[in-house]
């Protein structure tokens, strides 16, 4: 394949719990095709997995997190996860996981054949109390871009309800012009890979 115009990567991998404390290291086997075109961001991804977490268990975990977040007396207002020692307080782990889920959409949107990202830090989180059923967060993450070693701050607005697709809007700063985008994603416990803009 002409690497200047298009590149396809075929891969196989095993899945595991994002939080290793949950036990059961290997959850399933997946194969994927990742297709980059004209060195542009947002590759096309086609993923097939076997022996994934049961849908009912995933929905139950999503609902427990949702219930916990809705029962907080005061909306969250947190800074720096992990802390300066790299530690994530267990009570803040669900917030990190939700932020990572929303950030994974941003990372996918920005990834090219030569640029890829990882969420290095959740530098601030603010939960908004709303009259609606969904949970609203504004948060800032620092994305680490591996090939340039740049740290890119992104402000992300996430709207989540366990029975609805995740909504993500973001604004990132970086060496290029600031970017803005929006989109939807799947369940919090196991995001779907068929991401689309709205």
From TrEMBL:
UniProt keyword list: Protease inhibitor, Receptor, Repeat
Protein's UniProt keywords contain Repeat: yes
PANTHER family listed in its UniProt record: LATEXIN (PTHR28591), RETINOIC ACID RECEPTOR RESPONDER PROTEIN 1 (PTHR28591:SF2)
Family: Belongs to the protease inhibitor I47 (latexin) family.
Any one GO molecular-function label of the UniProt entry: metalloendopeptidase inhibitor activity
Coiled coil: none
Lineage of the species this protein comes from: Eukaryota, Metazoa, Chordata, Craniata, Vertebrata
Pfam families: LXN
Keyword check for Transferase: no
Entries under Gene3D superfamilies matching the protein: 3.10.450.10
Origin: domain of life: Eukaryota
Stored InterPro entries: CYSTATIN_LXN, Cystatin_sf, Latexin
PROSITE patterns, sorted: CYSTATIN_LXN (PS52033)
GO CC annotation: extracellular space
Protein name according to UniProt: Retinoic acid receptor responder protein 1
């Amino acid at each position: 394949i002409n690497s200047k115009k298009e590149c396809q990567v075929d891969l196989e991998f095993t899945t595991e719990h994002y939080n290793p404390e949950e036990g059961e290291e290997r959850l399933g086997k997946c194969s994927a095709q990742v297709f980059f075109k004209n060195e542009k961001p947002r590759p096309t991804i086609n993923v097939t997995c076997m022996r994934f977490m049961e849908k009912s268990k995933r929905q139950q975990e999503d609902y427990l997190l949702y219930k916990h977040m809705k029962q907080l007396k005061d909306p969250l207002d947190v800074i720096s996860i992990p802390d300066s020692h790299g530690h994530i307080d267990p009570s803040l782990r669900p917030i990190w996981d939700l932020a990572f889920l929303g950030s994974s959409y941003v990372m996918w949107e920005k990834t090219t054949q030569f640029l890829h990202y990882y969420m290095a830090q959740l530098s601030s989180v603010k939960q908004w109390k709303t009259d609606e059923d969904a949970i609203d967060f504004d948060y800032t993450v620092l994305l680490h871009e591996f090939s340039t070693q740049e740290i890119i701050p992104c402000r992300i607005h996430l709207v989540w309800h366990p029975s609805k697709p995740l909504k993500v809007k973001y604004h990132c700063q970086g060496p290029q012009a600031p970017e803005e985008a929006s989109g939807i994603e799947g369940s919090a416990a196991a995001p779907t890979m068929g991401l689309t803009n709205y």
